[in-house]
Amino acid sequence: MTNSQMLRNCLNLVAGKGFRFSFDRIPLRHPHLDSRRRNNLLLAGADKIFGKTRMLAAPPVLQIEPTNVCNLSCPLCPSQSMKRPKGMMTMETFDAILRGAGDTLLLAILYGWGEPFLNADLPGMIARCREKRILTLTSTNGHCLQTPDKAREVVDAGLSALIVAVDGSTQESYAAYRKNGSLDHVMRCAGNVIEAKASRNSATPLINLRLVANRHNEDEIGTMEDLARRLGVDMFSVKSLGCLPDRAEFHSFLPGSQDMRRFGADRKKVPQKTTFRCRYPFRQPTIFWDGTLVGCEFDYESSAAWGNVNERPFRELWNSPAAQRMREAVRAWTARPGFCGQCPYVGRGKNSSIIASVIFDSGE
């Protein structure tokens, strides 16, 4: 967010107007902020300006992992190799999160290292958030929601935005990375949600058809945008390859075009301290399926966990000694945790993580 955007939002907050922001260029708007959320956002701005390790604000954005189980085998996803136990978040754990953070939370990102719709309770989690006026965003590989009833359940729950991952216009290019995946299933999923929105006369969820650019699909971006437009989704975006960039498999999927690569020619030549300002342990932490709170989703083995929301209230964990130590280490850079070495943002070249995006005019 630019300084002018931040100033405009602050003025809107003071005036009691709605709050506009984006995640991965997906436009989001919270229409009616109550005083607690408004004051928390102002405190979050103060936290950013003053750079303390003990936060005045609760996190306005929280990533919550419904499950780390997945039905696909994508080569660069940590879910394939992580040693952390597999499981599904229970509604009891989810309710514990909302008791601790829900009153000030603006956005719940409901996905992690797995396919979120494999958790049958996901629509219930979305509905709980809607009751508390929390916006919700999730991402799917498109192999669930294969019936109109399942899609209507998600629309009725009140999901704000949905990313549908489809990394190719043919089964061959799609399955090069989405191992064990079916392009037909993805198209059916997207179509079902579009039809469910129409049957309920609902503007939400905003549907973003997402392609991760790689060597097998980089020549299909125009075709994919045309497909997204014909399908009737709200948005199409292209993301650069960024997950686990130091693995050998990463280089085998790199696009040939430099314009589609996230990192420079030699990512290892990252200066000792960059201008990149990490937001995750400061404003956007992650809670894994079992209730473990970590400062960043890339701590996917919970190597520097802050505690568990089933054992201690979220607010205690948020400013715990472990949390403050991590913030200090990240800010100092030289003492940063080991998982920071897999950061998809440090060492980035001229491109952002989102290479291109287009929002379709509903009147087209």
Structural class: alpha/beta
Query: How much strand content do the residues show?
Result: 5-15%
Spatial arrangement of strands, main beta sheet:
11-10-9-3-4-5-6-7-8-12
How big is the Rg?
Answer: 20 Å
The share of residues in helices is 25-40%
The main β sheet shows up as: 10 strands, mixed
Shape: globular
| Topology as a string of helices (H) and strands (E) | HEEHEHEHEHEHHEHEHHEEEHHE
State the separation between the terminal residues, measured CA to CA: 29 Å
Helix segment tally? 12
Low-confidence stretches: none
- Rounded mean pLDDT is 91
Number of strands: 12
Task: Kindly describe this structure.
The chain is of the alpha/beta class and 364 residues long. The protein has twelve helices and twelve strands. The protein has helices at residues 3-15, 35-50, 91-101, 122-131, 148-157, 171-175, 183-199, 221-231, 248-253, 280-283, 314-318, 321-332, and strands at residues 19-23, 26-30, 61-64, 107-109, 135-140, 161-165, 206-212, 235-239, 286-287, 292-294, 307-308, 354-359. Strands 11-10-9-3-4-5-6-7-8-12 form a ten-stranded mixed sheet. The radius of gyration is 20 Å and the shape is globular. The model has no long low-confidence stretch (mean pLDDT 91).
